[in-house]
């Protein structure tokens, strides 16, 4: 794994810190213009744009045509989710490994406890992911909702709360992960396998499919 982070990942973390740690920007606040913010962060405007695209996909920022870039209401949830982890010095790999521990169990219990409507919703979310991919629109929020809905279907209150916290790690790796177009069909394949086991109410199958999904993600991420 490379020792250095991509510049855009550092910019993402810096902007998130401005919102969640320094509380410099609140919901509805406008970010400084592109030139000013790029100068402050000591990066090119191209790097800044790449970071902002990721934060827009996550739902933290939104662009209002003719006005600028603003902090959205979703940032409030992000702030609450990140607060328990602000003192931890872990990295993205640590968070991916936590996903490996937790998400297979979420899939297991979702197969046993999820309602038919919840499992149908999980399948609908995967359909949305694939439709957006056909339009070359790959959004972090789609991926997040897929996994969060599985956690909700587990009907375990702690599981529902911990998944959003873990997904700050996914945010850091998402842009890098999906730049490799070979990852996308494999990701969809694992999602579809998980869905099939959920529909069959096969808890062990759902657990193992999610575990394979997480292991493949960690393996790929560690090669970068």
TrEMBL record:
<dbReference type="Pfam" id="PF00392">
    <property type="entry name" value="GntR"/>
</dbReference>
<dbReference type="GO" id="GO:0003677">
    <property type="term" value="F:DNA binding"/>
</dbReference>
<dbReference type="InterPro" id="IPR011711">
    <property type="entry name" value="GntR_C"/>
</dbReference>
<dbReference type="InterPro" id="IPR008920">
    <property type="entry name" value="TF_FadR/GntR_C"/>
</dbReference>
<keyword id="KW-0805">Transcription regulation</keyword>
<protein>
    <submittedName>
        <fullName>Transcriptional regulator, GntR family</fullName>
    </submittedName>
</protein>
<feature type="domain" description="HTH gntR-type">
    <location>
        <begin position="5"/>
        <end position="74"/>
    </location>
</feature>
<dbReference type="InterPro" id="IPR036388">
    <property type="entry name" value="WH-like_DNA-bd_sf"/>
</dbReference>
<keyword id="KW-0238">DNA-binding</keyword>
<dbReference type="InterPro" id="IPR036390">
    <property type="entry name" value="WH_DNA-bd_sf"/>
</dbReference>
<dbReference type="GO" id="GO:0003700">
    <property type="term" value="F:DNA-binding transcription factor activity"/>
</dbReference>
<dbReference type="InterPro" id="IPR000524">
    <property type="entry name" value="Tscrpt_reg_HTH_GntR"/>
</dbReference>
<keyword id="KW-0804">Transcription</keyword>
<dbReference type="Pfam" id="PF07729">
    <property type="entry name" value="FCD"/>
</dbReference>
